[in-house]
């Protein structure tokens, strides 16, 4: 990681006026700080800034020392797929509402950027998942996911029946709508809706959560992060499924095909302002309690 | 671990006729194999076997090279607390119905014992939890648990309000019936009933599962196994709770007291017959599917 | 209802050897009892019985005084759709494993039929749901369901966003995989997998259960059986869904279309052997407990 | 119901400054409207208003034509128990945060009262539950509940084992922390935390929700509102439980005792401002979505 962050790439959700304004402020500020600024060509067609080079996201990630993404969790996912192969750190600016991954708010943005440029930040590594969908014929297609790999039935009205293995050991025959295999980052997304637990972001683990399982005791399982999870659709059902990585369709899957999930060799390096607090974000996003302020007179235990 | 297992201690649930019979067979067989046999004094008053020394459980665990427990998961918990401080391996014989911890069935018992004595077995280490309940006055009481540490409200009809911290970082203010902090071993017990996930038995993690939480998004969290979890009851509620380790009351807890859960320095070493299969036990205990036999024509993937 | 049951129609899942054998025994026995026997033409091509007229299911239901269906819950659903418009009573024979709707086992079948022919049986009316899917253009398609009407997203990887109304009153904006609207009969099927409750079979109610809701507090709602439930997909998402009645696709639904669920004017009349016990079936199907025998020394309360 | 509401009784949570202020404004306004004002003697010791008679809650409910309660849902429960035997209508003023039962906010209070006095309001009847706890010896104690009747284990660390019957038909043997039997009003309280559904407030039903059931398929059941639910603790466990009505302990229950829940003969008559919207309250209390405004361009369906 080049700590000087001489070249900064900017990414944002196209066609969002707030994102447009935020990118303009960011670009101007970075120029003032004598940084080379790159802008994702797809980000916003009408955004034309003096001295800012536009190029496609992969080229941007290949040249940048730091990528700053502006938007919600969807934009951050997109940014994560972009930076992961290049191992460039990523900083997320939200659009007014705290995101799980974009934790700098627009009003704090300029100060936050200055802190990062000055070397004051926290580094967090988020693991990613690798999916391999291998057809019975032997052909394979690969995908990566920051959040999750989902197996979802493609035939409305029919139950999907499939089997799971953990490191080659048979786990279960499942009937239902499918399965979510999520990283700690993804544990607060689809897997949570499917009944999975929250995984601490630095836990070396993944969660395997059945979607609407036919058997009520078919509950989410948390396995080690270096585990290989295999999934097969059982022959007799002849139902088809789709394999989806972070919401992008990887391919169709039927009986005879094999889906394998493992930890990806790539990961995402997130930069946070100092004082970043994962559980504070969780409380905000999940509407937990009314905070702790004033409720406990004792301060944090162990203090 | 003394692999010769020259001295074998026997434990069993008192007053159960099937356990009595099983212990008799075991003792006779071990004598035939020229092992010194010790019997827990509390196990069964009427059981008097020639050449078998009776002594209390702690003394037994102190002298034995191997402890064999006969009974259900309750008996295995008791055996685990007994052997843990002495680091003696434990083998569990069930009473006809597969247990999570007692996976040798009576008909396979004699063969299983011979295999173990011959050095053919699998070793599995199960982590334990340490609980410290510290009163506002400074006095503290300690407990250990193989399954779980539970905080349960003591006042019927009143919601318990409490706060949690993970490694000193505030997590949440909870309202509800309490909290279960479970090891992987305990993840299939009380925590599962409270909505928690199943943790793979070798995962270095613990699950923090709220019991009937007032806030529906207050979901189970899985944290690293070396994490310190702190719990405080909030002042204004003035409600009392009980702290329970593996079903045994550790003490009463009120506002001003601090409950801390960490990984215990002790653990349990389980011996299993070769071919032990955790997921097979899980499928049996949770009434999962009808097994995989004949459902997939492809055999295990990756083979 | 013609209590004499002079004409009996037989239905069964095609191509199942056990069903074939059961139908042969049934047809022979009914002929012995001097009943006119009709056989569904699709039931089994190779089944050719002297004196048994074959005709299509609708014609069969139009002429029969009683329909006997042999198979699992899938066959019973099919039989229910068939008999409902004709208001013919339905008796279900399972294939060895108790079904929610087929509660007569093959060994008890001959005795059970004789009891019914002799007028000794219990009558149970199960309500059905009516679905109307109205396109923005005004065209509408109608369906009926014994179990449930499901709205399921058709675009893998994208959350479906939709709104619900109860008798014209706005209920909620939902994000997730879709929605199940179930009758009491269907409450133990898909809706149960989605987190819904069990509804007593005679309760005049329906359950609206979100599928993997984005918002964790978006919980199942039970409303009166005569309620009108309206569902719309919100405009901005531009996602498509499928509407499915008892597993059969009714049609595609997009923004601008309206799905309405009400109680159907048709219903299913089930005949049961005397002593029929819904909760006994529930205990068996859901693997509940080990029964009550011998656990309570007091017998049923109030006795 | 005396529609003139000549005599108005005021109830509020004692010792809350905001409640105190609200009651003062209310009393003054009602005097201006020439109503006789009664004040619950326990409500607030320091509140002394000219021309306001103080008397105990039961006497107040016996003389009032309308009771106005100021506070949260706890205060409303208390008010409900008070008014139910006298069949006096109840109007709830919240303390700034919308309550399930107190839906008039302080700023709208004076206008709301005037509307009610002028006869412009909606009437809603909420059913109540009757609990009878009958000891093995024959002695019985009775209670009523607006929300729920809960059976909760009294012995920390031990599973409670109990059996349920619905109208004399055996339902299930349960193991776990206990059971909540809730009215539609109570379906959004403890039963919801235990995994139960939301029941529409006018549904003639009750929900039976197990608390942390040992068997994962032991799910909530919704039965008709006129059903009798019986509960017994099984003999062999020898565990004790507490029976709690709306959070108030009714008594201890052990093996041999019988708990019976039925619909109460009394009910609560709630008055609401015109335009009262149950689902709006639900959306607010459960933090549902971001409302429907602007999300659907189509307006309510059927319009």
Task: Explain what you see.
The structure is a homotetramer of 303-residue chains. By secondary structure, chain A is α+β, with helices and mostly antiparallel strands. Chain A has helices at residues 17-32, 57-63, 73-83, 109-117, 190-193, 278-285, and strands at residues 7-12, 36-40, 53-55, 66-70, 90-93, 122-134, 140-145, 148-153, 160-166, 169-176, 178-182, 198-199, 205-211, 221-224, 229-233, 241-245, 248-253, 258-272. Chain A has a 6-stranded antiparallel sheet with strand order 7-6-18-15-9-10, with helices on one face. In chain A, strands 14-13-11-8-16-17 form a 6-stranded antiparallel sheet, with no helix packed on it. In chain A, strands 3-2-1-4-5 form a 5-stranded parallel sheet, with helices on both faces. In chain A, strand 4 (66-70), helix 3 (73-83) and strand 5 (90-93) form a beta-alpha-beta unit. The radius of gyration of chain A is 21 Å and the shape is elongated. Residues 290-303 of chain A have low confidence and may be disordered. At the A-B interface, strand 9, strand 10, strand 12, strand 13 and strand 14 of A face strand 9, strand 10, strand 12, strand 13 and strand 14 of B.
